[in-house]
Amino acid sequence: MLLQDPTPLLDAATGARWLGYVSLFPVVGAAVFRILVRRTGSGWPDMVPRLERRAAAVGLVAAGALLIELLLKLYLQARAFSDPTLPLSMEDVHTVLRHTSWGSGWHLQFMAAILALVGYALARRWTSGWILVFAAVLFSLFATPLTGHATEHPWGPRIGQLVHSLHLAAGSTWLGTLAALLASVYPATLGDPRREQVLAKLVNAFSPLALVSAGTAVALGLVLGLTYNGGISAIFTTAYGRTMLVKVGLLGGVLVTGWYNWKRVRPALGAEPGAERLARSAVAELVLGTLLLAATAVLVALPAAGIGE
Ligand code: HEM
């Protein structure tokens, strides 16, 4: 029964899609982290610009990686629609970009990534750069679902895109912000005696947001899962359903480490070795998160039983 669906799990673009999600998450997370810094930084005003600059650098690197992923994805899409015996021509690339809905979605994703890159580059020096960053984040969350299943969602493309965008926003607010927090706070407080206090305050501000965004991502994930599988039985009999089960298993690991960070590591922050403990356990949570995103990168390209029923 479990071997009923022989669909191959991986395609040429699986790795590119994974890189795309792994890059998009900190693009979103660095912007959310900047809001946390602004809200909590009144006790240490000199630290705020330092943390903001770090967050902008994290966002900049992530936006650069997102652009590379988008170019790779375009190449692979054009390759898939061209004659494999001939070298890829600009004509092939133009055909994909101009004459397919995938190409229109890609264009928007590319524009959003450029906007994020410019916004983060400016935000490293000027506060006004953050306005571009927030616009780019919203634009990216809107555009990302346009090249996937969302446009064929059983409840219609508009609802499908909305649910995808919100699922993506919630997931990236959770894990992307955690990634941006770690990548910004540790280097910005290197050798600073306030590291433990700064970290404790930021993590305490992040925790309720993490709980709400993780809960929202899970709830919307269940909605997507049930609708795309078109019922319960396909979850166990199709490659799509089984890949989703792998994703849910990985999510279990992320949730356990997240719960451990919340209940055990967070209350001990503020004094040594709190920061050191958090670095270890939060990195474990993020590594499992990247595996969850790898399962997602497989999932989004598989045929789903609930589409076109
Ligand atoms: C019970 C939990 C979850 C389930 C059942 C679930 C299921 C799904 C499904 C069915 C899709 C649509 C795939 C497609 O396009 O065919 C999806 C997309 C996605 N999920 Fe989840 N998910 C869950 C939790 C999460 C969490 C916690 C995260 C991140 C932290 C996440 C990240 C994503 C991402 C990045 C996408 C791709 C969105 C897009 O490209 O439009 N998911 N998920």
CATH topology label: Formate dehydrogenase/DMSO reductase fold
Structural class determined from secondary elements: mainly alpha
Number of strands: 0
The unreliable regions are: none
Count of discrete alpha- or pi-helical segments spanning 4 or more residues: 10
Strand content: under 5%
The biggest sheet amounts to: none
How big is the Rg? Answer: 20 Å
Estimate the mean pLDDT confidence: 96
The secondary-structure element order is HHHHHHHHHH
First-to-last CA distance: 21 Å
Identify every distinct bound molecule in the structure, by name, code or SMILES.
Answer: protoporphyrin IX containing FE
Assigned CATH architecture = Up-down Bundle
CATH class: Mainly Alpha
Shape: globular
Number of domains: 1
Q: Helix proportion of residues, in percent?
A: over 70%
